[in-house]
Structures are given as C-alpha cells and as structure tokens.
Write a structure and sequence with these properties.
The complex is a heterodimer of chains A (190) and B (173). Chain A is built from eight helices and seven strands. With 190 residues, chain A is an alpha/beta fold. In chain A, strands 1-2-3-7-6 form a five-stranded parallel β-sheet, sandwiched between helices. Chain A has a two-stranded antiparallel sheet with strand order 4-5. Classes of the chains: A alpha/beta (190), B alpha/beta (173). Chains A and B meet through helix 3, helix 5 and helix 8 of A and strand 2, helix 3 and helix 5 of B.
C-alpha cells in the first residue's frame, strides 16, 4: 500500500510553478511541509472541513492558476457538502485529492467512516464531479501527478494510503504570515 | 420577495462599489432580490452553498486569490459558521457578511428564536464586528461602512438586517 510521504513526493515531483496547494488540517499539512515549506502552500492548522472550499474560492478567483486541495478522509468527511457546492461550480482548475488512510491520525488513529465503507469517490461523482477516481498504486499515482500538471477539468481523486504515522513536519502556525506570503505568491504568478 | 425593491438594490450597489467578485449564499427569502441581482451580474460569481460555513472558507480562498467576497445568510446560518470563523480570525482575513434576521419581530416560527437571540453574541465572541440596520434608509450607509472596515482594515464585519426590513412572512398552510 502507498505510504503517505512517498505518495506526496510523487504527486508533487513535477509540480508546475502555477500550482497552488491547500493542504487540510492535520497529516496532509505535515505531508506538504515535509517537501519544504513554501509560500505557495496554505497550510491549515484548523478550519476542519474547510480545505475544499478554500480551494474553490481560490480557483474561482484565479482561473489561470491551478489549485490542488490535498486533504485527509476525516477532513473531507466533515465538509462533504463542499463536494456538492464544487459540483455546481466545477472550475476547470481545481483538483481535490483525498489521502484516505481510513483513520483520524491526529486524534489517535480511530477509524473513520471510509473504514466502514463510505465511498468518497462515489460521493464526488454523485455531486456532479464526473472526473473522480481511485488511486491504489504507484502507477495510478504517477498518472494522477501527470493529470495535475495538465489540469483541464474539476478533478477528484482518492488516494489509498497506509495508516502509518510518520514524524510530523510542522510549518509556521502564524496565520497572518501564511495568508500574506501566499497572496504575494499568487500576485507574482498571475 | 422576488419583487423587493429599495434597500436590496442599494445593497447590491454597495457590493458593486466595493468590487465584490464572489458572493456565497444559502437561498433565503430575505435576500432573494439581492441574490437575483448577483446572479444576473457577469462580474460576480454567485456560489450557492450547502451550508453557511462553506461560505466562510470560500471567502478566505477568494481573498487568497486576490478577490473580495461577501456572504449572504440568515441568522440561523450564523450558528453553522462558528468554528470556521477561527480561520478568519487567526489569519486576519477581511470578511463581510449580510445577515437577514429571523426570530426577532413578527416571527411565526418559534424555532427561529434561539439562534436569533444568539446571533450578535456569537459573532462578537468569534471576533466579528457587528453592525445593524433597522430601517431601510440606514442599509446602504451601514453596508458601505462595513465594507470599508472589512477591506480597509482586514476586519471581519457582519451587518444584521432587521426582520422588520424583510416584513411579515405570509404563512400558507
């Protein structure tokens, strides 16, 4: 099974310079920080359930940039209505990627709904996001990474990852700094 | 409500003047006219939400992308936003919301009353500045002041629109 740190590295290996990332509260924020803290990534330390909607607002504001929301199954479950809202808007430059380890890593690895069979790809598809699929292995992950580089329609992907707990890599918690440097990076790229 | 005139049109003019480019909303009778105006405007992206807290996160994303936004909701929706307002507060995002009040005047539905009473205190507790308009002639000026504070100083500002402005709801059995 894919390991989260290796998966994030594969996914971002050929990251285009116009790609901006919103990682969700918890492990996906640490995963993105493990690649080096960047102005182009808006690390979340709270706002659970909000990652996908932050990505939507950004994608609508900057249609020429590419936006990737990379979050966990628990964070996505808390804001599942966002998939309905995104399904109505469908910006071509937005990808929502869920690293699904079927557990709440931040609180002690309790099983989540996806461990009991709740299918987030099915939810995304039913919400009108036609391009929605599962990623199970390295080949699938590389295909997804390629698709992110040439993003052409709203995309949802669930990446099955092992429920491991690698050492945390913590980006800054200063929200004002995160916001200001991200906005400067957007202004420079647009 | 679709044929409301007066203050909703003035409110729309304030949004245009403040260069609002994204408007998140949960469908609402009190905001019906304003929502219709936003939907008809080519420079405003209207985003229908499944719950109001999505609109808080949407506003943060819009600002990260360099756009101003506004969130339209009714008082019951404020309760749905509480924790998401931490995002606005911690990162000091500008945030502008217009809230039609229920449960405070000629209310036929008692279930609207508890959240109505909590609306102002909850917003204040989360760091949102609360303005209020009780009369139609105050709406535009109050909205303008709110927009200036929000985008001029990176504040979170709510304008409560009194239920009296909306009028009695005709209840059909």
């Amino acid at each position: 099974m894919l390991k989260r740190r290796e998966a994030i590295a594969t996914l971002m290996a050929n990251r285009p310079k116009e790609m901006f990332v919103v990682p969700g509260l918890g492990s996906t924020t640490y995963d993105m920080a493990s690649l080096g803290e960047k102005d182009t990534d808006f690390y979340l330390w709270g706002a659970m359930g909000g990652a996908a909607m932050i990505g939507l607002g950004l994608a609508l504001a900057q249609p020429k940039l590419k936006v990737a929301v990379i979050t966990g199954d628990g964070e996505m479950l808390m804001g599942m209505g966002a998939l309905a809202t995104i399904g109505v808007q469908r910006p071509a430059n937005l990808a929502v990627i869920v690293f699904d380890n079927r557990h709440y890593g931040e609180t002690g690895m309790q099983p989540s709904h996806t461990d009991k069979g709740v299918d987030l790809v099915g939810v995304a598809r039913a919400c009108g996001i036609a391009r929605a699929y599962d990623v199970q292995d390295q080949a699938g992950l590389e295909k997804l990474a390629g698709e992110l580089v040439a993003l052409k329609e709203t995309l949802f992907a669930r990446v099955h990852i092992a429920a491991d707990d690698p050492p945390r890599v913590l980006p800054t918690k200063d929200g004002v700094e995160l916001k200001n440097r991200f906005r400067r990076a957007v202004a420079a790229a647009s | 409500m679709e044929n409301q005139t007066g203050w909703p049109d003035q409110l729309f003019d304030v949004l245009k003047g403040a260069e609002i480019r994204q408007v998140g909303y949960v469908p609402d009778a009190g905001h019906a006219r304003l929502i219709a105006r936003c939907k008809a405007d080519n420079d405003i992206r209207d985003v229908v939400l499944s719950t109001e807290e999505e609109g808080v996160a949407l506003a943060a994303g819009a600002w990260l992308g360099g756009q101003r936004s506004a969130l339209l909701m009714q008082s019951s929706g404020v309760g749905n936003c509480i924790n998401m307002l931490s995002l606005i507060n911690t990162c000091r995002f500008p945030f502008l919301t217009f809230i039609t009040m229920r449960g405070e005047w000629a209310e036929f539905n008692p279930w609207q009353v508890p959240m109505s009473q909590a609306t102002g205190p909850v917003l204040t507790a989360m760091g949102v500045k609360v303005y209020r308009a009780d009369h139609a002639e105050e709406v535009a000026d109050t909205a303008q002041a709110a927009a200036e504070l929000a985008f001029g100083g990176d504040f979170a500002v709510a304008v409560l629109l009194a239920q009296k402005l909306i009028g009695r709801k005709v209840w059909v059995k």
